[in-house]
């Protein structure tokens, strides 16, 4: 157990006032302190990993994705077949046009597992896919 830090009387009064704040008021105060004094409540040790993982974090939080066919690759016929598996309502000519006009959105606003499955099918056929 960590010992409670002893504060001066002045700081103790400020701390007591802060404890009375609502969550929104605390968030506003924290934002003000960061802006005014250039400080953050985040410990320095925690800041480094958070900064490094900042690019990956939004992808984990996303609930819907867009599957984009970026290139057909060397096996255009295989990619066309994979596109038709993913989008069974497309005819052969429509699927061919879609593959030839890459980069093109295949699926929009789909769940992560559906996006991952589509990506695997296209990549297995030799195409290149991006998830956005």
TrEMBL record:
Signal peptide start-end: none
GO cellular component: cytoplasm; ribonucleoprotein complex; ribosome
Large ribosomal subunit protein bL12 oligomerization domain: residues covered: 10-54
Top-level taxonomic group: Bacteria
GO BP, sorted A to Z: translation
Keywords: Ribonucleoprotein, Ribosomal protein
Coiled coil: none
Any GO MF annotation of the entry: mRNA binding
Domain Large ribosomal subunit protein bL12 C-terminal stretches: 65-132
Pfam family of the protein (one): Ribosomal_L12_N
InterPro entries: Ribosomal_bL12 (IPR000206), Ribosomal_bL12_C (IPR013823), Ribosomal_bL12_C/ClpS-like (IPR014719), Ribosomal_bL12_oligo (IPR008932), Ribosomal_bL12_oligo_N_sf (IPR036235)
Subunit structure: Homodimer. Part of the ribosomal stalk of the 50S ribosomal subunit. Forms a multimeric L10(L12)X complex, where L10 forms an elongated spine to which 2 to 4 L12 dimers bind in a sequential fashion. Binds GTP-bound translation factors.
Function: Forms part of the ribosomal stalk which helps the ribosome interact with GTP-bound translation factors. Is thus essential for accurate translation.
Family, as annotated: Belongs to the bacterial ribosomal protein bL12 family.
Name used for this protein in its record: Large ribosomal subunit protein bL12
Organism name: Candidatus Roizmanbacteria bacterium RIFCSPLOWO2_01_FULL_44_13
